């Protein structure tokens, strides 16, 4: 009978250890996976948020790239995939539920090989902007999307129909057209275009409050002196840069929160026009509730006592 008692004690200890490990693993917020499938290994896949911000860039390996995303963070809506020798492609993605995986397939089209070529480089201030290269006949000669750096390159054949302009468009931004020149063989023509928001904010001069934190995907709120939430942001790559209007109601506090972490607050100072003020707001994990372990421990003691008494 004593052997049975000892075995029961061992099982109780293992159960307590398993519960402790599970509780520890639960801290940090719910996550899901966005899986991007692509046949071009080595391609660069960039995940873009609903705000147009870069969330993360990964390299396609073994035909896919996986992004682990917080379900409570700013949603991701688009993935942009690019690779040397291929046209950049963009497609919509769906945010996964906790513990789930959503999958998309992106097919890259190889740039044509053969004939004398030059190159047209287009730089913009927008990630994922569509760039249409127009021929002198008025038709679209080729199209592509800007990558995570706002850049896209086109191979232009010198023997093809000459190009005359580019049209750059993006959701929430005014479409713009610019005249371009066909590049000579082996040459590169480079153009830059800055898009303007189709719904510009009113408020005058702006500065930036840069909030740094140790938890990716954490929610950032800038609180005005009146106690209202004036601006929102999300921690990406360790920080959230939030533009604030110097003529608006001043903000004096920042609040940073994330699932599984204790909300933290800090004071901030309004920046002057064109300036950036930085504040660091680290988060601390929420301690596990001891109640569950207390109950399990009590039951274990009662069980052990009963077995010992029977022996």
Class from secondary-structure proportions: mainly beta
3D shape: flat
Total count of helical runs of at least 4 residues? 2
Distance between the ends: 6 Å
Q: Please give the largest β-sheet.
A: 4 strands, antiparallel
Secondary-structure element pattern, one letter each: HEEEEEEEEEEEEEEEEEEEEEEEEEH
CATH class of the largest domain: Mainly Beta
DSSP strand count = 25
Q: How helix-rich are the residues, as a percent range?
A: 10-25%
Q: Give me the CATH fold name of the largest domain.
A: Immunoglobulin-like
Q: What integer is the average pLDDT?
A: 82
Description:
The protein is mainly β. It has 4 domains: 2-28 and 291-310; 29-110, Immunoglobulin-like, CATH 2.60.40; 111-200, Immunoglobulins (Immunoglobulin-like, Sandwich); 206-284, Carboxypeptidase-like, regulatory domain (Immunoglobulin-like). Helix content is 14%, strand content 45%. It has a 4-stranded antiparallel beta sheet with strand order 3-2-5-7, with no helix packed on it. Strands 12-11-14-15 form a 4-stranded antiparallel beta sheet, with no helix packed on it. β14 and β15 form a beta hairpin. The termini are close together.
């Amino acid at each position: 009978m004593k052997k049975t008692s000892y075995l029961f004690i061992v099982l109780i200890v293992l159960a307590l250890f398993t519960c402790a490990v599970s509780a520890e693993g639960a801290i940090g917020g719910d996550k899901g996976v966005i899986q991007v499938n692509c046949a071009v290994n080595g391609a660069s896949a960039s995940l873009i948020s609903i705000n147009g911000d870069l969330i993360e860039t990964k390299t396609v390996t073994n035909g896919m790239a996986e992004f682990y995303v917080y379900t409570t963070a700013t949603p991701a809506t688009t993935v942009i995939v690019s690779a040397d020798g291929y046209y950049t492609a963009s497609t919509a993605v769906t945010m996964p539920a906790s513990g789930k995986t959503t999958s998309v397939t992106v097919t890259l089209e190889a740039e044509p090989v053969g004939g004398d070529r030059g190159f047209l480089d287009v730089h913009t201030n927008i990630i994922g902007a569509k760039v249409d290269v127009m021929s002198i006949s008025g038709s679209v000669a080729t199209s592509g999307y800007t990558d995570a750096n706002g850049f896209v390159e086109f191979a232009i054949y010198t023997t093809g129909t000459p190009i005359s302009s580019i049209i750059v468009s993006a959701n929430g931004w005014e479409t713009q057209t610019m005249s371009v020149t066909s590049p000579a063989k082996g040459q590169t023509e480079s153009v830059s275009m800055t898009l303007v928001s189709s719904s510009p904010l009113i408020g005058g001069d702006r500065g930036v409050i840069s909030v740094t934190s140790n938890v990716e995907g954490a929610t950032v709120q800038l609180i005005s002196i009146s106690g209202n939430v004036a601006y929102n942001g999300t921690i990406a790559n360790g920080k959230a840069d939030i533009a604030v209007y110097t003529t608006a109601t001043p903000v004096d506090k920042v609040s940073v929160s994330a699932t599984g972490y204790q909300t933290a607050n800090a004071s901030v100072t309004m920046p002057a026009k064109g300036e950036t003020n930085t504040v660091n707001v680290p988060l601390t994990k929420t301690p596990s509730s001891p109640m569950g372990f207390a109950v399990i421990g009590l039951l274990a003691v009662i069980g052990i006592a009963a077995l010992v008494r029977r022996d």
